[in-house]
Amino acid sequence: MTAALPESSPIIAIDGIEKNYATQDGQVVAALGPLSLTIARGSFTTIVGPSGCGKSTLLKLMAGLIVPSAGQIRLNGQIVDGPQAAIGMVFQMPVLLPWKTALDNVLLPARVLGLEQRSARERAQELLALVGLADFSRRYPHELSGGMQQRVAIARALMQDPEVLVMDEPFGALDAMTRELMSLELLRLWQQSGKTIVFVTHAITEAVFLGTSVLVMSDRPGRIADLVAVDLPAERSLDLISSDAFGVYTKRIRSKFSLPGWR
């Protein structure tokens, strides 16, 4: 199935991508695909599906962290054949260096890339302000809450000024209230930065609240079960979740699954 989001100027084009893994006993497990998709520049695409359907695998393929078994991915028309500076990745856990301050953690990509330190430091401070942590630049990870640590991780991913931010369940380890607040912060950041975001989640409600489009994946091997264009106001508040319009989207997505516990 080939799907296209209802936006122009795709920044990512996925063509017949597949990913297989070999087990220790020599068996081949089909994890993903075939799957074809285009993602528009400046969009916020959320991905939802059952555990093990290849959501994280798809993100790693987009970022060039792993190689596809078949098919190809193009970023700005160029084949992705390795890690891409134009893509920043945020994982479920912040993975901050505990002996470095928030500012120094954000500066890590600049140091790895050998960027000029004075301008990089200014950029890092701007990013901490963007994620609401201007007053916490000298704090160490153990002095920050889980939500604050994840904000530092987001700022770090933005340090190299990527065109695309891919996020693998970044709020999965947070409590419900912090998760909602982080969703609002992420929407604000997306609107201010104009970045393209691809966001994996297990929560249908979160997928609809954040996304301009929701990619619904089938069970393994992950394919496209549905592609839902979310026509909700750009300015979103938590009250939107209880609206009838919001419920139409969650019901449509939930209908694709017969698994217990789906939200």
Task: Reconstruct the topology from this structure.
Layout: E1 2-4, E2 10-22, E3 28-40, E4 44-48, H1 55-63, E5 70-75, E6 78-79, E7 87-90, H2 102-113, H3 117-130, H4 146-158, E8 164-168, H5 176-193, E9 196-200, H6 204-210, E10 213-217, E11 224-229, H7 244-254
Helix pairs in contact: 2-3, 2-4, 3-4, 6-7
Short description:
With 263 residues, the chain is of the alpha/beta class.
Q: What's the SSE pattern? A: EEEEHEEEHHHEHEHEEH
Based on secondary structure, the structural category is: alpha/beta
Chain-averaged pLDDT? 89
Per DSSP, the total helix count is: 7
Q: Note the gap between the termini.
A: 26 Å
Radius of gyration: 18 Å
The gross shape turns out to be globular
- Provide the β-strand percentage band: 25-35%
- Name the helicity range: 25-40%
* Number of strand elements: 11
For the largest beta sheet, what order do the strands appear in spatially? 7-8-9-4-10-11
Largest sheet entry? 6 strands, mixed
Q: Show unreliable segments.
A: none
List keywords for this structure.
single chain, 263 residues, alpha/beta, 6-stranded mixed sheet, 7 helices, 11 strands
Question: Your description of this structure?
Answer:
- With 263 residues, the protein is an alpha/beta fold.
- Helix content is 32%, strand content 25%.
- The protein contains 7 helices and 11 strands.
- The protein has helices spanning 55-63, 102-113, 117-130, 146-158, 176-193, 204-210, 244-254; strands at residues 2-4, 10-22, 28-40, 44-48, 70-75, 78-79, 87-90, 164-168, 196-200, 213-217, 224-229.
- The protein has a 6-stranded mixed sheet with strand order 7-8-9-4-10-11, with helices on both faces. Strands 1-3-2-5-6 form a 5-stranded mixed sheet.
- A hairpin with a 6-residue loop joins strand 10 and strand 11.
- Helix 2 runs parallel beside helix 4 (146-158).
- It starts with a strand and ends in a 9-residue tail after the last helix.
